[in-house]
Amino acid sequence: MEEQPPGKTAVNGTTPNGATGVASREIEQSIKDLFSDDYEIRAETVSTLGKHGEKAAELLVSTLLKRSHVSTMHMPITTALEVIGKNSINVLINALGRIKEIDSARDVYLVEALAETLWHICDRKAAGVLVEQVRK
User: Fold this and answer.
1) Count of CB atoms situated within 10 Å of the CB of 56
2) Residue 9: which H helix or E strand, with range?
3) pTM for the predicted model, two decimal places
4) Is 53 left (phi over 0), alpha (psi -120 to 50) or beta?
5) Quick count: other Cβ atoms within 10 Å of Cβ 11?
6) Nearest one of 14, 10, 114 to 55, comparing CA atoms
7) Judging by beta carbons within 10 Å of its beta carbon (0-12, 13-18, 19+), is residue 49 exposed, middle or buried?
8) Contact by Cβ (8 Å): 73, 63
């Protein structure tokens, strides 16, 4: 993940107030812990991310988009997004909307990971976006 200037958050560039700054740091650490070799740490991390809802979803999707070339990142991140559930739907829809063309196998894999995550969450709101992805 890119380092942010002191006092800035990765999501919207605003200065965090106490609780928000702590939550952002906890989410960022949890995202790193998703890739731990220790299963218990990974399981606890997914649960922690689930409690942070949409804010965690934003940072997870941002990480996935920045590092989509690392295929081993897809599964842990999409699993966490599924645990977050309905709070991650808008973030996933927005991410898919930003992918205008599929130019490489990497793009296919990324779209597939995001679309499949939406499908697993099972919300009707995602149906139109999923159909649009098939047209790409």
Assistant:
1) 27
2) none
3) 0.77
4) left
5) 16
6) 10
7) buried
8) yes
CA quadruple 48, 29, 65, 7: dihedral sign: positive
Provide the 8-state DSSP code for 52. T
Q: Which of 30, 119, 116, 107 is nearest to 71 (CA)?
A: 107
Helices H / strands E in the chain, number of each: 7, 0
Which residues does the chain have with pLDDT short of 70?
1-20, 22, 136
Give the orientation angle of helix 39-51 with respect to helix 53-66, to 10 degrees.
Answer: 120
Q: How many CB atoms lie within 10 A of CB 84?
A: 25
pLDDT at 28: 92
